[in-house]
Amino acid sequence: MNPAFSVIVFTTLSGTGFGLWFWLALRIAVGDRPEWFDGLGWMLGLVVGAVLVAIGVTASLWHLGKPARVWRAFSQWRSSWMSREGVFAVACFAAAAAVMALSWGSRHGLSVRAAGALLALLSVAAVYSTAMIYASLKPIPAWRHRLVAPAYLLFAALGGGLLFGPFAGTTIDDPSLVGAGIVIGAIALWLVKRRYWRDIDRDPLPHDTAAAVGLPGRTVSTFEGPHTESNYLTREMGFVVARKHAKTLRTISVVLFALIPALCALPVWLLPHGDVTVLLWVGAVSFQLGALVERWLFFAEAKHLVTLYY
């Protein structure tokens, strides 16, 4: 598939924003309720999460033929994962606003905890819906893989976790848990992507040209292309990245989204009382760059079954 930069930006930035919302909201739901001024870092984190999600959602509109009609997608939430994603995203904004408002004006911690729990659940639902937009497409076997949704969730969790430390570090009882979580998350994400890449390399397409033309089990060869020049299908569905370039980009992405963040988080784990905020920011920036490379590969390496005709 031809990678669309707008969709790459959308899935990476919004995923990190939802991940940051999830960890902040979960901490509010199960921990002590931060007051408005004492928990200013929490509030700033909620705002940053909103900015990341807003930038990502806005970027996704660039890929639409008629962005002004995007509102119609919300009506198809019963059958469309894209529609559900939009509904959950809007609901997340409302829940985040509720957390901020209740933390400011309410003296009752229960209402803030409830709003935090709701925001955490909605953030997970939004990221899962994004993943299922691709995982539900049968004509693209690489996206139908069972690890697509877990990878999306892990990317959001790790990206949000790297930002969670700087925004909530002063109110965390045991910062070493954050460092350990980042290291474990980075390793888990690397293992998931490693297995995913191995599977799509082993069997990129489950069918052959014979099956595509309705003659399964027979030998079919192509002696002439169906078109004399390129068209939309050959440009968008038949995009090809060389295997040697794919392997290089995979290595670069793993170093950026897993290795460097894990190394940056080790001092947080082993030296929880030191000032390691700068390291977490370095890890967060590295992660975003690696996620952009990985997401480009996610689209570039996916092959549509329609290419069997060509």
Query: How much helical structure, as a percent, in the residues?
Result: 55-70%
Q: Which structural class do the helices and strands define?
A: mainly alpha
Mass-distribution shape: globular
By CATH reckoning, the class would read Mainly Alpha
User: Total number of helical segments?
Assistant: 10
According to CATH, the fold-level topology is: Formate dehydrogenase/DMSO reductase fold
**CATH homologous superfamily, by name?**
Formate dehydrogenase/DMSO reductase domain
Number of strands: 0
Question: Kindly state the mean pLDDT as a whole number?
Answer: 83
* Percent of residues in β-strands: under 5%
Write up this protein.
The protein is 68% helix and 0% strand. The protein is an all-alpha fold and 310 residues long. The chain has a single domain (5-309), classed as Formate dehydrogenase/DMSO reductase domain (Formate dehydrogenase/DMSO reductase fold), CATH 1.20.1630. Helix 1 (5-30) packs across helix 10 and helix 5 packs antiparallel against helix 6 (175-202). The longest helix has 28 residues, at 175-202. The mean pLDDT is 83.
